[in-house]
Amino acid sequence: MRIGLLTEGGYPYVSGDAGLWCDRLVRGLGRHEFDIYALSRTERQEDQGWIQLPPQVGRVRTAPLWTAHSDGVVYGRRARRRFAEAYGELAAVVCAGPEAAGAEVFTEVPGDPADSVGAEADRFANALYGLAELARDEGGLAGALRSENAVRALEHACRAPGALRTARTARVPDLLTVAAHIERALRPLSLDWYEDDALGSADLCHAAAGGTAALPGLLARHFLGVPLLVTEYGVQLRAHYLAAATLEEAPAVRALLAAFHGRLATEVYRAAALITPGNAHARRWQERCGADRAKLRTVHPGMEAARFADVGEAVRGSRCADPGTLVWVGRVEPAKDLISLLHAFAEIRSAEPKTRLRIVGTPAEGPDGATYLAHCKALAAQLFPDEAEGAHAVGDNPVSFEEIGGPEIPSLAEAYACGALIVLSSVVEGFPVSLVEAMLCGRATVSTDVGAVVEVIGGTGLVVPPRNPRALAEACVALLRDPERRERLGAAARARALELFTVEQNITAFHGIYLEIVSHSPVRRVIVDDEGEPLPFGVPAEAHAPARWTAPHLMTAGRPRWAEGAPVRATAPSPVPLPLPVPVSVGEGA
Fold it and tell me: What is the mean pLDDT of residues 491-496?
């Protein structure tokens, strides 16, 4: 089958999010064809180029999110009226939406609250698809979204009765900021990807994230009937909330953007045929945002176990490492809470004076990461002055800050191999990749109870509350003093990781999900070769299964419903064209 893989700021670019798991997925499903539709976030990302793509990638189409290209179209009176109606409706729904996840929905619709929420979701969807249809018919949407009319529509919605209390305080600069953000998020509406020879040629669309990345999939479903699969290893709405908390924006801006992204997430979840969260933590977020529980299929990220095999299969496991060394591996940023880890290590040193702590990682991008790393180094120097074993020995700090690639730690596996106990001290975490890597290395772990940590670790490690240095220190001391327990936990952790978190299980799960989606979707076209003859097996056999058809009557006068639309050319012609028997499908209730 042919899959349209939708990404934002990641695959196939060298840098970005979700690139690694997308590449493993594409390479692991060699019998399928992939078309990549990628949205880039920065000019630098585009300049860095793509990774080497496997042969099953047929084509790659890209579009920038970091800049807007106006097509020069000036709307006439009818087009301006269409835009005002659609954008005004979208603004009204956003301004009447919840201020945050789980907040009360302000609505004038009487009756069941669930019906009111559904009515608001329908209004947002109608407005969104109305803008998409305007862009398809007339063009010029990028300029219209940045126009004075858009700002006036937002202002009118903020001043309307029943609007958010916070939205009523929005001033003109706030409205300009909100309008610019919405314009950037809706740039995929203006793309030329929604034709039969583009996304229309795919058997399904697979969005590697929610939010803006899934917008092309929404429109492919709306215009062309292509089913949509949405995968979220990090929930986009949660990421927006976390990012907004660090920005110095006005309360009205934060409230309106939160409402917009909440409405968009709800529509993505409503339209998706299936949703694959990466863990139970993400699944709870999706359910809270309106995802149907029947659509959810948890698929854990797949880790490459082979690179950690030498360390994980070493004789006697963690006893081969330095029994007095703790290791932390990750990206240095405030969410990892290294400050609490350093204070916990001070208590560990008072109980076990010969213990050492190795912090392995690089600072997060931007000035904040470097500043936080410098602060951690200063605190470590203050808490642990250089120590020497004798009067003639050189002093040494028990805390070291290191990076992978140096002579002492040439690889990631070596970072986990240099210690007997791995520590995770985060206060915010999605899927803890470093924890799974430590498990694959057969190391005992002490982690904080955040994100999907408990789901990942199961009963194979110790878990303590976040921001609690004393609890973290007590758990570490308990394992440092019990090598046999460390070895048992490390062996159990490796067995659990090999069972649940490998690339193979991830690829197998998605292969089954692809077949499930296609089997529940009607055949939308006929695949033909260069001579115009039907191509044998051009459409997956699962697509002919008479199950859950979207239309009650599949047969039309003289031509089956599945044959409607222009024929789609195959990517490679068949050497011996053979006529494809016409399948006869029976709808439900026939």
Answer: 95
For residue 122, how far is the Cα from the chain centroid?
Answer: 25
**Residue 371 CB neighbours (<10 A):** 12
The one-character DSSP state at 236 is: H
pLDDT of 318 > 80? The answer is no
Give strand pairing partners of 276: 231
Write the single-letter amino acid at 230: V
Residues 14/48, Cβ–Cβ less than 8 Å: yes
- Token pair of 146 as six digits: 């940045």
Q: Looking at per-residue confidence, does 589 or 154 come out higher? A: 154
Checking DSSP bridges between strand 527-528 and strand 356-360, what pairing results, if any? Answer: unpaired
Helix residue ranges per DSSP H, 5-112: 19-28, 43-48, 77-95
Q: How many CA atoms lie within 13 A of 450 on its CB side?
A: 19
pLDDT at 520 (0 to 100): 83
Please tell me the distance from the alpha carbon of residue 5 to that of residue 18, in angstroms, as a whole number.
Answer: 12
Segment (H or E) for 356: strand 356-360
| Rounded distance between C-alpha atoms, residue 475 and residue 424, angstroms | 12
Q: Which of 249, 248, 256 is nearest to 178 (CA)?
A: 256
Half-sphere exposure for 418 (CA within 13 Å, toward CB): 20
Is the pLDDT assigned to residue 321 strictly greater than 70?
A: no
Tokens linked to 94? 């956003």
**Distance (Å, whole) CA 456 – CA 279:** 8
Average pLDDT over residues 269-284: 93
- Partnered with residue 556 across adjacent β-strands are 559
Q: Encode burial over 516-538: b for 16+ CB neighbours within 10 A, e otherwise.
A: ebbbbbbbbbbbbbeeeebbeeb
User: How many angstroms separate the CA atoms of 309 and 104, rounded?
Assistant: 50
Confidence of residue 549 (pLDDT cuts 50, 70, 90): very low
313: exposed, middle or buried (Cβ count in 10 Å: 0-12, 13-18, 19+) = exposed
Residues 286, 269 contacting (CB under 8 angstroms): yes
Which residue type sits at 164?
L
Please, are residues 411 and 402 in contact by the beta-carbon 8 Å criterion? Answer: no
Say if CB 504 and CB 302 are below 8 A apart.
yes
The backbone torsions φ and ψ at residue 165, rounded to the nearest 5 degrees and listed phi first, read -60, -40
Average pLDDT over residues 144-165: 93
* Other CB atoms within 10 A of residue 375 CB: 13
Q: Are 267 and 218 in contact (CB under 8 A)?
A: yes
pLDDT at residue 531, as a whole number: 74
Question: What's the confidence (pLDDT) of residue 106?
Answer: 37
Q: In 3-state terms, what secondary structure has residue 479?
A: helix
Residue 589 has pLDDT above 80, yes or no: no
Strand 555-556 and strand 559-560: the pairing is: antiparallel
In sequence order, the β-bridge partners of residue 510 are none
What mean pLDDT, rounded, does the chain reach? Answer: 85
> Cis omega before residue 575 (within 30°)?
no
Report the C-alpha gap between 224 and 201 in whole angstroms. 9
pLDDT tops 70 at residue 233: yes
Name the residue among 501, 579, 459, 542 with its Cα closest to residue 203. Answer: 542
End-to-end CA distance of the chain: 28
